[in-house]
Amino acid sequence: MSELEQYRQKRDLEKSGEPSSKADAREGPLIFVVQKHNARRLHYDFRLEVDGVLKSWAVPKGPSLDSTQKRLAAMVEDHPVDYASFEGSIPKGEYGAGEVIVWDYGTYSPDEEGRLLFMNRDKAQSEMRKGILSGKISVHLRGQKLKGSWTLVKIKGAEKDWLIIKHKDEYASLQEELIDENRSVLSGRTIEDIRAGVEWDNAGNWKLDIENMDGVRRADFPSFILPMLASIADAPFSNDAWFFEPKLDGYRIIVGINNNKTTLWSRSGLDVTNKYSVLTQPLGLQPLSAAILDGEIVAMNAQGQVSFEALQQYLRSSLQAEVIPLVYYVFDILYLDGYDLTGLPLKTRRKILRSILKEERGVKLVESFESDGREVYEAALKNGLEGVMAKRKDSLYQSGRRSTDWLKVKAVQTGDFIIGGYTAGEGNRKGSLGALLLGYLDDKNNLVYVGHVGSGFNEDSLTQIKQYLDKIKTDRCPFAEIPETDALATWVRPEFVAVVKYSQWTRDGRLRQPVFLHLREDKPITEVARMDVIKAPDNTNRPDQNRIIADLVEQLMQKKEKFVIRLENNRINLSNVGKELWPATKSHPPVTKREFLMYLANVSPYLLPHLKDRPLTLNRYPNGINNEHFWQRHWNLPIPDFVSTVSVTGEGEKESKYLLCNNLSTLMWLGQAADIEFHTWYSRVSPEPDFEKKDVDVDRLLDFPDFIVLDIDPYVYSGKEKTGDEPEYNQAAFDKACEVAAWLKEILDSLSLNAFIKTSGKTGLHLYIPIIRKLEYKEVRQAAETIGQFAMQKHPKEITMDWAVEKRRGKIFIDYAQNVRAKTLASVYSPRPNDEATVSFPLRWNELGKIYPADLTIFTAPDLLKERGDLWGGILGAKKDLGETLGISK
């Protein structure tokens, strides 16, 4: 009998609703699931993935954390791997009738010999086969409820009966009763909720199934990952799109764990394992095969508080950890067991980290708060910390980049500055130094003088720093311009970095009231640049936005053809709101201008960020999609004060005015003008975050796109088209476009470039690759062409880049020519002028071929967005350096 035949024979799968077959072939760590099952008797089904099925045991009393408890586990028939996410109610009369929830879910590895095999499926499954055959299995679980080492032991003489026992480890507990935690880890529902017909709560829909997460890619263990860097905010703030963490005063350290070897790197990539060797043992105990962690090493003083002075003392002390305890506080995970996680949003990386991190003496997880950021900031200061780190929940990990998605919020401004010299001391400092002469590197690598610092030193630091500097004296001034000093200056080679606190910058670029704090030993001078303070995000949260939109929708529901709405202190005249813009079809009623405006209002929190600062090309349908329409690039008529514009110089040096849609009032005004499609440029008029200088000419900024864009257009015909017509939408064509998109993603993954996919809203797909704005359209177009050609060479029968339409027949056309200044595509969430009233909508990569354009309409998109959020919310944070990737110098 085959592995799953017994499973199928016991069930009428059409009636029970249970999965019928194995899942597709999986990669990555093996999974486990525990399902709470209220059948004839309540029990827990413990299932382990082995060889493409779930080996299953029924545990009547459920698993226990008490290592003295031996719970009966009766082995039952194998289940398909798809069963791991099954929840629902099996109807009466069917085998196993009753309610089922996913009580716990995670990954596991056999650990019989103390080795973890999360990265080696074949070896892990081989060990499991041996264990099942011998009647003794030992596994390490990484679940949300079950963690650590467990054993399953077959009872002698019994055919099916085993015992499940918790090994005595740090996760074992005599007090905690796990089965009191009665909610599903996937849907948040209880057995009682299932019985009452409560719908799936997608807010709780998450599981440690890394290989299927959108944004993850298979990758070899990296030699090093440069840390992501934060900008500085001018004030504490509260915003529910952000996490808030205490800012620790220590050294940033990247940790690599691979094949039982632990390596610690400084932020610049130096191996500092020997300096902090006391931490390698607790880090090496983590339940994983390979990982890259990001965090901060801190030292504790005698009072148990984080102390940078104690950390410096540790580094200079021969006793080291015997008297000064160190802690590695982990706040991010970048790689796990064969998968690069940097393309995941922070909120997902945090969930993974919480699921797998084993807190030891010396290894802790940084607390992350979703509450009022100002309260967290005040609490941090009361506890003697510098302030907080604020991080966007949807931010992707931007290796080596300073991003505005991460912000430092500190009570006192501090900065890192290069020491270029010192002045002689006077009075009680005679024979020592008087002040350090400080600077930073500008974008041309010139050392720019910012002033001198003479306070904050003690006798020891004065002596030590002078000894360091006297060894690197030079006759040549290292500053771009020789500074004026109050005393005789001694120049030194720019090799040391000082951390200085100050009140503010003066207008002429000097530090006001600087105070020396300490030397910085972990930062090379090449990273020392001036960091301007940026304005903190608005102290506003979603409820305020919800209130504004609810009020707007209420105004739009007025039973009039013509009226005025009030929005953001503006008055907007609406007319002909009952006019049909989309006709009725078999699948939906007609869409009037009123309903179009309500769609724009409801999706505005997601749509507006993608329109912001991008010149717009309008596509207006004053009398509906089946009547005459016209494209409009420039607006020469009077416009309301709330509408922003930008003057753009074209090829003929003629200046034209483009509209920008930067607020909700403008969006409604454009809706009133029956602008059904929102076509945006790929470049923006804002310099942030790519340009250090904020005074770059706006017209010049528009030469640098944020994306490489590939338009994937199927020329697979349905057979119903008239002679000369373009292919109409058909499922076979769209499926082929999805296949080509997946091939392109493989290429982009190999280049370590992030890729975002969306439906065009018509027959094809749009693929956007976010890039740092260093290259102009010409170079970006060449890169797009190269990527397309590479895909075409690998799949010449399926892909074409030929401009002759007759040569595209039966193939998927990759249009790279979109990458030109002033070219546009319909924005994400833009409606499209077709009978189905579809919208251009983002997909997860694992949804290709499962969700179709006709599923994504003006009617369905708003609820879908509320359910899953903006999948493209972090697209600008996912930029990679295209020039560096392709070896293009600029």
Strand content: 25-35%
Main sheet summary: 8 strands, antiparallel, barrel
Uncertain runs: none
Summed up, the domain count is 4
- Tell me the span between the first and last alpha carbons: 65 Å
What sort of overall outline do the alpha carbons produce when their principal axes are compared?
A: globular
How many extended strands? 46
Computed CA radius of gyration, to the nearest angstrom: 31 Å
How many helical elements?
17
Instruction: Kindly state the percentage of residues in helix.
Output: 10-25%
Mean pLDDT: 88
Q: Determine the structural class based on helices, strands and strand pairing.
A: alpha+beta
Q: In order across it, which strands form the biggest sheet?
A: 1-2-3-4-9-8-7-6
List the helices and strands and how they pair.
Layout: H1 5-9, H2 13-16, E1 30-38, E2 42-50, E3 53-59, E4 71-80, E5 88-90, E6 98-110, H3 121-134, E7 136-143, E8 147-154, E9 161-166, H4 191-196, E10 217-218, E11 229-233, E12 242-246, E13 251-258, E14 261-266, H5 280-284, E15 290-299, H6 308-316, E16 326-336, E17 339-340, H7 346-356, E18 363-365, H8 373-382, E19 387-392, E20 402-410, E21 413-424, E22 433-441, E23 447-453, H9 459-470, E24 473-474, E25 489-492, E26 497-502, E27 504-505, E28 511-512, E29 515-520, E30 533-534, H10 542-556, E31 563-567, E32 570-574, E33 580-582, E34 591-592, H11 593-611, E35 616-620, E36 630-632, E37 644-649, E38 655-660, H12 664-672, E39 675-680, H13 698-701, E40 707-714, H14 731-750, E41 756-759, E42 765-770, H15 777-794, E43 799-800, E44 812-815, E45 825-826, E46 842-843, H16 861-868, H17 882-886
Parallel strand pairs: 11-20, 11-30, 16-18, 43-44
Antiparallel strand pairs: 1-2, 1-6, 2-3, 3-4, 4-9, 5-6, 6-7, 7-8, 8-9, 10-17, 12-19, 13-14, 13-15, 15-16, 16-17, 19-20, 21-22, 21-25, 21-26, 22-23, 24-25, 26-29, 27-28, 31-32, 33-34, 35-36, 35-39, 37-38, 39-45, 40-42, 40-44, 41-42, 41-46
Helix pairs in contact: 10-11, 11-12, 14-15
